[in-house]
């Protein structure tokens, strides 16, 4: 099964549906599996006195509140209906993260096959229950959390009868420094909960996601933007369209490198064996009737004769024809 790649458009449309459509175009051109947005009503998720996170202050104007910043990034439910239809036309899966109950109900009405839950909700137990009760498969990001908090979230979802969970390891910092990535925590999640796992990548570049795939990630999520210089909290830590294409290529190449895990020669190797391996040959000219001694044989290419490992079956046998130096000794010759 291929790694499921989510191109996280998030709020990088800056509240403009036309930019959102261009993000969908870029995601489709990059051959990702899904493009994801964030659906919310600002009044329901951010208090008017909430301060911005450190990375948000670094990436946006510092003289505005978190509420004002988020409000500018909001799209309407009708906008999202239009974006889902646009995705259908383009042949790419539309996903969005609901950040409040009204948005959750709305996205469920769109019959989304997956509900992606952001790291901010992992301790929002009442909300997790409502999500789980929808009986839709859940992808749950685990940024900012410890193992105990993840366990409580998973048990909350289980208690509502929903067993279809994928856990994404994440570090909620934009961009995340390599020293803070801790990809081995993804393996910890897989071993602890016996669930599919993946990685939500907030680093600059693509190395972290490629390494996560090599470690067995089932899902990879990555922010992307049309232009990193645009104003907004997430643009600087996102891939541009060309980088997104390279991101997908690198992941697919890594999958190909990993292979099936079965140790066996490839079809091309089977052909190369003849030229690369050795067979039993005469160490010097041998006459018909000679009893073969160890000193009379050696091992040279090509590899389409008797294998060296069978040399003991040749020793002491009588040759029934003359054999020249370096000539293969076959079973018909003894």
What is the helix content?
A: 25-40%
Q: Give the count of structural domains.
A: 2
CATH superfamily membership of the largest domain, which one? Aldolase class I
CATH class of the largest domain: Alpha Beta
Regions with little confidence, pLDDT below 50 for 5+ residues: none
| Overall morphology | elongated
Q: Specify the structural class.
A: alpha/beta
Per the CATH scheme, the topology name of the largest domain is TIM Barrel
Number of helices: 12
- Strand percentage lies at 5-15%
Instruction: Please give the CATH architecture of the largest domain.
Output: Alpha-Beta Barrel
The main sheet comes to: 8 strands, parallel
GO molecular function: N-acetylneuraminate synthase activity
Protein name: N-acetylneuraminate synthase
EC number: 2.5.1.56
Keywords: Transferase
Question: Can you characterise this structure?
Answer:
The chain starts with a strand and ends in a 34-residue tail after the last strand. The relative contact order is 0.11. It has twelve helices and ten strands. The protein folds into two domains: 4-258, TIM Barrel, CATH 3.20.20; 267-333, Type Iii Antifreeze Protein Isoform Hplc 12. Strand 4, helix 7 (125-132) and strand 5 (138-141) form a beta-alpha-beta unit. The protein has an eight-stranded parallel beta sheet with strand order 3-2-1-8-7-6-5-4. The protein has a two-stranded antiparallel ribbon with strand order 9-10. It has helices at residues 17-29, 42-45, 54-59, 66-71, 77-90, 101-109, 125-132, 147-159, 184-193, 207-214, 241-258, 267-276, and strands at residues 4-10, 34-39, 93-98, 115-117, 138-141, 165-170, 197-201, 219-223, 279-282, 297-300. The protein is of the alpha/beta class.
């Amino acid at each position: 099964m291929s790694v499921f790649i989510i191109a996280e458009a998030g709020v990088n449309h800056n509240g403009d549906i036309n930019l959102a459509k261009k993000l969908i175009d870029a995601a489709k051109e990059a051959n990702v599996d899904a493009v994801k947005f964030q659906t919310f009503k600002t009044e329901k998720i951010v208090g008017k006195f909430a301060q911005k996170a450190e990375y948000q202050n670094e990436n946006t104007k510092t003289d505005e509140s978190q509420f004002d910043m988020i409000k500018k990034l909001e799209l309407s439910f009708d906008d999202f209906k239009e974006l889902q239809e646009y995705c259908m036309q383009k042949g790419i899966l539309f996903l969005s993260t609901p950040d409040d109950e009204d948005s959750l109900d709305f996205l469920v009405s769109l019959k989304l096959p997956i509900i992606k839950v952001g790291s901010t909700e992992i301790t929002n137990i009442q909300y997790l229950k409502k999500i789980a009760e929808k009986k839709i498969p859940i992808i749950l990001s685990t940024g900012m959390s410890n193992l105990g908090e993840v366990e409580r979230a998973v048990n909350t979802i289980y208690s509502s009868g929903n067993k279809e969970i994928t856990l994404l390891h994440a570090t909620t910092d934009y961009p995340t420094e390599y020293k803070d990535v801790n990809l081995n925590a993804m393996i910890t999640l897989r071993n602890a909960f016996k669930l599919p796992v993946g990685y939500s990548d907030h680093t600059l570049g693509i190395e972290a996601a490629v390494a996560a795939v090599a470690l067995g990630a089932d899902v990879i999520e990555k922010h992307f933007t049309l232009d990193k210089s645009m104003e907004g909290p997430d643009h600087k830590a996102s891939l541009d369209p060309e980088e997104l294409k390279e991101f997908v290529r690198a992941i697919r190449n890594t999958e190909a490198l990993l292979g099936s895990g079965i140790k066996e020669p490839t079809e091309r190797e089977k052909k190369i064996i003849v030229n690369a391996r050795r067979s039993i040959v005469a160490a010097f000219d041998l006459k018909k009737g000679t009893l073969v001694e160890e000193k009379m044989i050696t091992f040279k290419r090509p590899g389409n004769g008797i294998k060296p490992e069978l040399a003991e079956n040749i020793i002491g046998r009588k040759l029934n024809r003359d054999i020249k130096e370096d000539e293969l000794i076959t079973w018909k010759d003894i």
